[in-house]
Amino acid sequence: MLSTTKCFAWRLRFPFRLPNVFSTSLYSSNPAAVQTTKHPEVRPLEDIPGVNGEAWARLRKPAQQLMLRPLAVSAYVDTLSKVAEDFVQKYQDGGTIEDLRPVLVDYATESVGMLCFNRRFGCMDKTGIIDIKFIEDIFDAVDVDSKSLGFKPYLYVSTPMYRKFKRALDHVYSVFQVEIKNALSTLEKVKAEGKLEEYLEQPNLLYSLLSHPKMTPADVDRTLLDLFIAGIESTSNTLSLLWFELAKNQDKQEKLYKEISSVCGNGDVTKEALANMSYLKACVRETMRIYSPTSPGSYRRFDKDVVLGGYHIPAGTYV
């Protein structure tokens, strides 16, 4: 018999996600979905939120190798630290933030954009090519989708919410096309100059994915779309929830402040400094334990029959 704790610790080889707003005919890899939906446009974009099983693993594995290993993550600390410094500089001179959400979405988009494309998008000073309003529209649609437990009409007909979501995703997708086209041009240039290996030694997720032997430009497009949207949502939500908890527990806030001050002082945040801030990591982990930083929340799809709390749960059931 499984407990709830063991349920969430259940390790599956591949994830399986519930049908969602990303699973419509515009963005589905499921031929049956394309045949049954009534959306007139069909774009064969296999984005990761709509992919399950081995197809997911094929797309995700190259990115995991480049991003999720400790040494890979530490390579981006200096780059992202500059974004954080600019964020602090913008608000440290006073002023009131009336709505925290768009502010954190600005910061998260700038950070994740730097991670994915190795360049600043100008989101925090409103000079960038990404319209933050479209990012928020995507999150709103995902939030509505995650709370819709019954029939989802937007999977079959073009509802106002779906049209808003489509416009927003098309905007982000168009930006991606330009960035990937420019990156491919740069790679061809440095390759012709015989400097490709030297160029790829620098941390650059986009170029590394485009140079991966098992990744096509379309695969890179799909992978980055997922990393970009999911990264912005999880980063902005985790930050807001972390700050909320620290504001409620000011003794813990003071303890965290002392740790950061003792480790970093007046210097920059480095990978060595981050490695020595165990309480900071604990605060982030506890925040993510209490809350879910993404709209769908945490659930599992068992690949075999189990007994959970005295109840028989058939294989393939979402919990």
Please explain how this structure is put together.
The protein has 319 residues and is mostly helical. The protein has a single domain, classed as Cytochrome p450. Strands 1-2 form a two-stranded antiparallel ribbon. The protein is globular, with a radius of gyration of 21 Å. The two termini are 15 Å apart.
Radius of gyration from the alpha-carbon trace, in angstroms: 21 Å
Percent helix, as a range, is 55-70%
Uncertain runs are 25-49
Strand content: under 5%
Helix-strand makeup class: mainly alpha
Q: Termini, distance in Å?
A: 15 Å
The largest β sheet comes out as: 2 strands, antiparallel
What is the structure about, briefly put?
The chain is mainly alpha-helical and 319 residues long. The chain has 14 helices and 2 strands; from the N terminus they run H-H-H-H-H-H-H-H-H-H-H-H-H-H-E-E.
